[in-house]
Write a structure and sequence with these properties.
With 567 residues, the chain is mainly alpha-helical. It has 19 helices and 4 strands. The protein has a domain of 273 residues. The strands form 2 sheets. It has a two-stranded antiparallel ribbon with strand order 1-2. The chain has a two-stranded antiparallel sheet with strand order 3-4.
Length: 567
């Protein structure tokens, strides 16, 4: 590790922090029905959408109605994207004449982009046409991100008021798309173009070093990259993702990509604080996210710069650390930051091959996904996931002092705790269940590129990524098979919807409760003590659920790696 590397990391995070406060306050105004600087331009468009759709923007929804609207919209999106992929061969903007996508892969891809996972079991540039990429995937990049933000706002209102309702899903979805994701995507896309990312349907005829001719497709990359990163989607136009020189051509574009991934998710806790009337509460939640994320960055950076002793024993210069699967133009520090950020979020974009990380370097993205994608998590999903952990943390604090736990004046009782625990149990049930079954099936094991503990890590990573709606992969696994396409698709759906439904039910229960004023006995949830307690609850729950599986995968692989140089 070097001072220069830490300075690069610090500057990138400072750029994110510089936008966090104004963007968080902007979203608070937007989702409380206030007037923003974009309303004179976009207000008529918003009202036009409501008239066409027959939506009454003043009508409030309880948690069940809000959830039903979300599920109905998501079901329609799944069917539409599946149809586009299956019918790709007869749809326009298909210059290469690509056929329709196979049923199991079409289901997997549709589920992936619907749930903001953006897992790719295919080569983007040779499997999907520009029409499928734009009309199918890019549309869901906007809508899945907007759905996550809408759900976060619904849960926020449960703590902000005592109306019994959570808002209106259709209004939240429209505003998130129209006033937030679309304007930011235009700005970020233009910045990408300035940094050298293509935005073109053209192809290039090039002569390779061997003297042969090759056709290189370009494509509308800058616009795809913008919403891919801002919406914490992660799917790449090219299979190499953000390691591809078209998607991520330089060190500056790499910083820009990390900034774009973090900016909305980091601002949402401030939005939460503003909406509940305590901006300090938002900073407390953001501090928890930052502590754990920076810890993950430090561990990846240390593990990768320490290198692989097996390679060093062969006489290779160890000064660069483990550079296998990494791009020299980014370096160890910014690769470590990208690895931790993309898995602390539910993004899944990668600028290095995670399968080539050292065992402890690979442990970090695995654990960050298994902790619930809350550091800071996907747009929206990270915030409501962190609020679930906050409810559990104040419950633990209440048990310690023998009084009814409260969070922001709302009493946390048995119903809320049962629903919070149900949500938290979804990820380990899906991840460990599917991994265990796959580890016993010869057809699944045939897809592994590695045996032993690293092979287990590949399986564990795949289902952690799917259930956590992340989308990155240990690329040694051949996931484009009927078994993995189907089970990973199911894991994605459960990770999104089976998780959020009990969270919405919990929010509905809290929304109906009066908000009590703070008293001398109220546990302060803006203090360093609460930050430490919340960090502890997240780590302990993650350790209890996943440590045995991690011990059999990356931890034992690390021990074996060092043992091989000793004996």
């Amino acid at each position: 590790m070097s001072l220069n590397g830490w300075l690069q990391i610090a500057v990138t995070l400072a750029l994110v922090l510089a936008v966090t406060l104004p963007l968080g306050r902007y979203m608070a105004v937007l989702f409380t029905g206030g007037r923003t600087v974009l309303h004179p331009l976009l207000g008529p468009v918003e009202r036009g959408f409501y008239r066409v759709a027959g939506v009454n923007p003043q009508a409030e929804q309880g948690w069940a109605s809000y959830a039903l609207a979300m599920l109905t919209f998501s079901g329609a999106g799944l069917a539409a994207l599946y149809a586009i992929l299956r019918l790709q061969g007869v749809l326009p903007f298909n210059p290469a004449g690509l056929p329709g996508v196979a049923p199991d892969l079409a289901f997997n891809t549709a589920a992936s982009f619907l749930t903001n996972t953006n897992w790719q079991a295919y080569f983007g540039e040779v499997t999907l046409s520009p029409f499928s990429q734009m009309a199918g995937l890019a549309v869901q990049n906007f809508l899945s991100a907007a759905t996550g933000i809408a759900l976060a706002m619904a849960v926020t209102r449960a703590f902000a008021r005592s109306a019994g309702s959570l808002g209106n899903f259709w209004v939240d979805l429209t505003r998130a798309t129209l006033y937030l994701l679309l304007p930011l995507s235009i700005v970020v896309a233009l910045a990408y173009v300035a940094l050298g990312v293509p935005q073109s349907f053209a192809t290039l005829d090039v002569t390779t070093l061997e003297g042969t001719q090759q056709v290189v497709p370009l494509g509308p990359l800058a616009s795809q990259e913008a919403i891919k990163q801002l919406g914490t989607n992660g799917g790449g136009y090219f299979n190499a993702n953000a390691a591809h020189p078209f998607e991520n051509p330089s060190a500056l574009s790499n910083i820009h990509a990390i900034w774009a991934m973090l900016v909305i998710s980091a601002a949402l806790p401030i939005t939460f604080g503003r909406m509940v009337g305590s901006e300090r509460q938002g900073w407390a939640l953001l501090s928890v996210m930052a502590v754990l994320l920076i810890g993950g960055v430090a561990l990846v950076y240390w593990a990768e710069t320490a290198g692989n002793p097996l390679i060093t024993a062969l006489g290779v210069d160890p000064s660069m650390g483990n550079m296998e699967g990494k791009e020299v133009r980014f370096g160890q520090a910014m690769t470590a930051l990208f690895v931790a950020v993309t898995t602390g979020l539910s993004c899944g974009a990668v600028n290095a091959m995670h399968d080539s990380l050292t065992p402890l370097g690979g442990l970090v993205p695995l654990l960050l996904m298994q902790l619930g994608e809350v550091l800071p998590g996907g747009v929206g999903s990270g915030l409501y996931g962190m609020l679930v952990f906050s409810v559990l943390a104040v419950f633990v604090a209440g048990l310690m002092v023998g009084r009814t736990p409260e969070f922001l004046g709302k009493k946390i009782e048995a119903r809320e705790i049962r629903l919070a625990v149900l949500a938290v149990l979804i990820l380990p049930l899906v991840i460990l269940g599917f991994t265990a079954v796959s580890a016993m099936l010869p057809a699944a094991l045939a897809s592994l590129n590695n045996a032993g503990p690293h092979g287990l890590s590949e399986l564990l990573y795949a289902y952690s990524s799917a259930a956590g709606n992340n989308g990155s992969a240990f690329a040694g696994l051949n996931a484009n098979t009927p078994w993995f396409n189907t089970t990973l698709g199911i894991a994605m759906m459960l990770g999104r919807f089976a998780y959020v439904l009990p969270v919405l039910a919990m929010a509905g229960s809290l929304a109906a409760k009066p908000r009590a004023a703070a008293s001398a006995g109220t546990f302060p949830t803006t203090s360093l003590l609460f930050v430490g307690l919340l960090v502890g609850v997240i780590l302990i729950l993650g350790g209890l659920q996943f440590f045995p599986a991690l011990a059999l995968g990356p931890i034992v692989e690390h021990v074996l790696m060092h043992a091989a140089t000793t004996f």
